Task: inverse folding
């Protein structure tokens, strides 16, 4: 499944993703944020699993399987632009703000802000078409939730 999705993401003008593809792309973006500081910790993995369980109504095993598939996909994907384009095309603006909030939750899960995570989050927010104001509000909600 993710091999086909990865090939679709690599096409010059990929078709919009179905729900399953959008889930995998979002999860891969969460993994990419967590890995961007070169310290992919258990607390970040746990945060991703909880986001997936809440967002998609998955049990612990389902969230773990989705995260592991996304880890493999993220490792093979060349750039963040493809993930964000796929998510932007598949998700309404209000829900993309929720995506940014989830990314902030992962970035802040280890208790510290990292310059690499901040930079990737700014890029992702921009590519998702989320305004700086909405991104800042999403960060504040993520901080309050921790």
Result:
């Amino acid at each position: 499944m993710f091999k086909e999705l990865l090939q679709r993401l690599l096409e010059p003008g990929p078709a919009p993703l179905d729900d399953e593809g959008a889930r995998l792309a979002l999860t891969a973006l969460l993994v990419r944020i967590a890995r961007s500081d070169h310290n992919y910790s258990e607390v970040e993995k746990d945060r991703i699993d909880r986001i997936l369980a809440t967002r998609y109504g998955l049990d612990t095993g389902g969230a773990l399987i989705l995260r592991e598939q996304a880890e493999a996909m993220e490792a093979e994907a060349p750039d963040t632009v493809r993930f964000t384009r796929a998510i932007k095309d598949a998700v309404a603006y209000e829900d993309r703000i929720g995506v940014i909030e989830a990314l902030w939750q992962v970035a802040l899960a280890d208790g510290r802000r990292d310059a690499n995570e901040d930079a990737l989050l700014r890029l992702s927010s921009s590519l998702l078409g989320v305004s700086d104001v909405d991104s800042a509000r999403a960060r504040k909600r993520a901080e309050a939730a921790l």
